[in-house]
């Protein structure tokens, strides 16, 4: 098919997905991901997590080959490329652009002591007012681990990159990054609107190790001749957008303005809201990064709440509590027979490790209020979904304390958002309207590329065809019951923290 197409890559830790979007209709014409089974994560020691960046490139090539074949699209028909990627990873290359070691990816925890020491030495006020977060376990702290533990390798580093920067480098032969990317690595100073020199100095990093900054929406680089030959693309095709997976998920749902919220609820859950002024949580219970439309002149911050025990709790309940062989829709039907509040059962859902929203405390998952003469499987199933929602709302209260007015939540119709109980409880407690859409990260990256290369004048034009599947309004008739159940949940949580 001849025409104008936009290519989006979504570089995750489990797979790389590619999507082709017809630039004129806004319709995704083909998608594919590789590998078909989860990509391996190298764990040499407990708490470590690494991946070979070459694997991302190989899977990107396979995904691209399939979508081009499925849609009968030629390389010259692809007008721009966008990239979404797993956040916080560290890729190190030498002057010949050779990768020096496997990437230390987002879920690797070895750098925690380095970030914590920096936070203590530099002071909470300094870090939070400039970085909006603790240096924590982010990219800068990961590089500090490399410097101390692999000094010879560190001395050969020419540039550091995030996973999306690496894929862009393989496409173009050029190394660059974005302010949004630097902010997720704790390398952007929001107060001085520049690279965080004070943190580089603290860790002993030369400023030249940071790649040149390009705008998130712009012709950042172009496909080079060697990559064009390798991939079947046209040399000179612009790479015109990149962002981490959570900012990109928000973009995919057309979340750009202050007060707008994007949410996902898969294995873990995320609430990502846009703030229109620089602010931070003094207890660092949520993370704050530059959103895709942040510039030095316009503050647009993405406040990120992550809950570890979301879909994983729902899956655990299905395996261990629900009748054997039951499907998720059948589970939802069973729990619908139980009233709001699960007749007094409360579940604290934090059974998947330490939770940042609880200041990195590990409370575990706990079940409260079981009455052997009254409660059954359906009560526990409903209480689990309610507990997940209540954990979202607990974090959203922190976001509201930072100045965010939450009145609408955008989400893809997938995972936990397929459950009426989950959706109605979230709307009922938060008071926000929920809008469900059909989209994904690679499609969002493709449309981001369309904005960056000028095919679309703005996000509203790019997402004019975003398909709204359903709207869930708060049920005011039962609002008091939802809030009473939430209040009881918070009271139980307060005893644990």
Annotate the secondary structure layout:
Layout: E1 5-11, E2 16-22, E3 28-34, E4 50-51, H1 53-71, E5 78-85, E6 91-93, E7 103-104, H2 112-122, H3 124-131, H4 139-149, H5 151-155, E8 159-161, H6 163-172, E9 176-177, H7 179-184, E10 188-189, E11 194-195, H8 197-203, E12 212-213, E13 217-222, H9 225-231, E14 238-244, H10 245-252, E15 260-265, E16 269-275, E17 287-290, E18 301-307, H11 311-320, H12 328-335, E19 346-350, E20 364-368, H13 377-401, E21 408-412, H14 420-430, E22 433-438, H15 441-452, H16 459-462, E23 467-472, H17 479-496
Parallel strand pairs: 1-5, 5-14, 9-12, 15-21, 21-22
Antiparallel strand pairs: 1-2, 2-3, 4-7, 6-8, 10-11, 13-14, 15-16, 16-18, 17-18, 19-20, 22-23
Helix pairs in contact: 2-4, 10-15, 11-13, 12-13, 13-14
Question: What is this entry, summarized?
Answer:
With 497 residues, the protein is an alpha+beta fold. 36% of the residues lie in helices and 22% in strands.
